[in-house]
Amino acid sequence: MKPGLYSEDSITRRVNRENVLFLGGGRALLMQLAHPKVAAGVDEHSDFRQHPLRRLRRTILMTMAIVFGDRETALAAAKGVNQVHARVKGRDYRALDPDLLLWVHATLMDTSLVTYETFVKPLLPSEREDFYQEFKLLGELLGIPRDRFPTALRDFNAYLGDMMEGGPLRVDARARALAKLVLRPPTRLLPGVAMLPMDVITAGLLPPVLRSEYGLAWGAGQRRAYRVAVKTLPRLVALTPPLFRVWPLPGRNVKLAIS
Question: How far apart are CA 77 and CA 114, in angstroms?
Fold first, then answer.
């Protein structure tokens, strides 16, 4: 097996291997879209309105390629994303802006930790710190200068708070319109009501300030359903055999096409 950028026993591989992390996808997308410049880039340079979940799929494939692929696969995945980002420019934004890249990276890092600890099991403080430090490598490959990252996890958490409280985030009309597509993606296979459980999970995982700004329903019924999910899903995850619980299985490299 060819070596990758992350070792098999790294906390990064242990966390990102869990399939249940897919439940955090809506959270990450809504956090990203809360930045007006990110929302503009997504809306004006992609088919997000027609296929809102493609961005999430590409992000997952890119992350898997970098985290679980051999070195060649990981570097090729990062190069492909950077080439796409180089073409994304607007009146007052560009996708390669380190500040925008850092925010998107932050949403993925934070969502991975939050979803893992909610639906798998809590991590030790040292494990959280290791995950944060290791995840910087992924951000560097995607164009974030090393000195732009908050130094430690506590600094990162302060950065998140600053971004949401008095920072550049603003859930505007465009963000709310795109969020509706995330929560109710157009599909001919499933009726909209089938997405209701994901609505509750996404709303429950979101930071309260963003949940409020998006105007997501969070009454007694939603809170009760979320508590049930938080109580039952970790038990189901613990009982699920690795063949169905994790991907890829330990010891396997990944080769992915992310286009």
Answer: 25
Encoded tokens for 216: 């997501």
Predicted local confidence at residue 197, as pLDDT: 84
Calpha distance 118→111 (Å, rounded): 10
Q: Give exposure, 102-136, as e/b (b: 16+ Cβ within 10 Å).
A: bbbbbbbbbbbbbbbebbbeebeeebbbbbbbbbb
Measured from the Cβ of residue 7, the count of other Cβ atoms closer than 10 Å reads 11
**Residues in the chain, pLDDT under 50:** 191-194, 257-259
The DSSP result for 167-217, as a single string, is: SS----HHHHHHHHHHHS---SSS-GGGGHHHHHHHHHHS-HHHHHHHT--
pLDDT (0 to 100) of residue 259: 46
Looking up tokens 């938080």 gives: 230
Length reported for the chain: 259
Asked whether the beta carbons of 24 and 93 are under 8 A apart, the reply is: no
Compute the CA torsion angle 77, 78, 84, 89 (nearest 10 deg). 160
CA distance 155 to 255: 34
Backbone CA torsion sign across 165, 209, 172, 83? positive
